[in-house]
Design brief:
By secondary structure, this protein is α+β, with helices and mostly antiparallel strands. It folds into 2 domains: 33 residues; 101 residues, Tetrahydropterin Synthase, Chain A (2-Layer Sandwich), CATH 3.30.479. The chain contains 5 helices and 4 strands. Strands 1, 2, 3 and 4 form a 4-stranded antiparallel sheet that branches.
């Protein structure tokens, strides 16, 4: 009897801890799961650019664009303008110094600049987010 009471109290304790920490047992569905809000347009080939400034630094970046689901015509436009957009991104990246991009604030500014530049030429919707799948420097 004493063992059953201990097991019962331990079960209540574990349930309380899981509930407070937001964890769920594998058999229950979580209402906190959020679906990705954007469709993704992915540039399959990495962007490889020489950065401005001294040091002959190169940047390798895997970039994807996020756009709202409701903008169904945007995918066609992105496909038609793929090389134009790719060139725009390469020019933006090449204008940067490594010191501008080796910190979170610099990357945030870069993402905004890329997004705003692309959105200026789009007619059938707007890019909402820029994602970096890969982002690394080399000499």
């Amino acid at each position: 009897m004493k063992l059953y009471i201990q097991l019962f109290l331990i079960s209540i304790l574990i349930f309380s801890v899981n509930k407070c920490s937001g964890q769920h047992s594998p058999n229950t569905k979580s209402s906190n799961i959020v679906e990705a809000p954007y469709h993704i347009y992915e540039f399959e080939k990495l962007f490889t650019v020489n950065l401005s400034g001294r040091g002959n630094n190169q940047l390798y970046a895997g970039i994807s664009l996020g756009y709202p689901e409701k903008q169904t015509q945007l995918l066609n436009e992105l496909n038609l303008r793929k090389f134009q957009i790719r060139t725009m991104i390469e020019l933006i990246l090449a204008s940067k110094r490594k010191s501008n991009l080796d910190n979170p604030e610099g990357i945030k500014i870069l993402k905004e600049e890329i997004r705003n530049s692309i959105n200026q030429i789009l007619k059938n919707g707007k890019i909402a987010e820029i994602y970096f799948r890969e982002f690394k420097f080399s000499k």
